[in-house]
Design goal:
21% of the residues lie in helices and 30% in strands. Keywords: Hydrolase, Metal-binding, Zinc.
């Protein structure tokens, strides 16, 4: 199994593609530029089986409908943000002048708890990591040694908490109780910016050392 990082849109939100040798793949956070993402997948002969959302802020969901409709695949989202996809005030698109109000069709499947998950041949664990937003989740691939963390944890930073439902103390709690318990060599595939590791952030992230 391998992963690819595809930055999309004005905010360069990282969409991640996790693929098997047979070409089956999962799409995480298709935030914008649906045609670009579809062309990227087509050139590599990849066959998406699902879209998984770390959370429902507009810069992570902008291409959901275009990609979902093209491949006829389901979308997964945590229940705390079930209403966000179609609500520009909740998904944040209302507050950014460069962004048209965004309304996305409802998710096909709702994540309701932390659990081991299996989609086809893909196996991972869903961690609830709220704070950046109430329904933020992280997808941990233990055997492969990486976690798709959305906007919870970045290289030398953490997610912003000034949008609806944000809570910095809750975010720090999520990071320390869920993410920092992962092996230090675990790759952190963040929603923006470069990939880092759990160990790197334990040692050098200024937002975490004083918690």
């Amino acid at each position: 199994m391998k992963w690819s990082q595809v930055p999309l849109g004005v905010f360069q939100t990282n969409c991640y593609i996790i693929e098997k040798e047979n070409g089956d793949c999962l799409i995480f956070d298709p935030g914008s530029e649906g045609k670009k993402l579809i062309n990227w997948l087509t050139k590599r002969n990849l066959k998406p089986t699902a879209i998984l959302l770390t959370h429902a802020h507009f810069d992570h969901i902008g291409a959901v409908d275009e990609v979902r409709d093209f491949y006829q695949i389901p979308v997964y989202l945590h229940e705390e943000e079930e209403e966000w996809l179609g609500n520009p005030q909740l998904n944040g698109s209302k507050f950014f002048k460069m962004q048209e109000p965004l309304r996305v069709k409802p998710a096909d499947y709702i994540l309701k708890r932390e659990e081991a998950f299996k989609l086809g041949d893909f196996e991972f664990f869903v961690y609830e990591t709220p704070g950046h937003s109430p329904g933020s989740v992280s997808f941990y691939f233990e055997k492969e040694g990486f976690v798709v963390s959305g906007d919870a944890l970045f290289k030398s930073s953490i997610g912003r908490t000034d949008l609806p439902g944000g809570n910095q103390s809750q975010l720090l709690k999520s990071i320390h109780e869920k993410l920092l318990f992962l092996p230090e060599e675990t790759l952190v595939l963040s929603g923006h910016g470069p990939v880092t590791t759990i160990g790197e952030e334990m040692d050098h992230n200024p937002y975490l050392n004083g918690f």
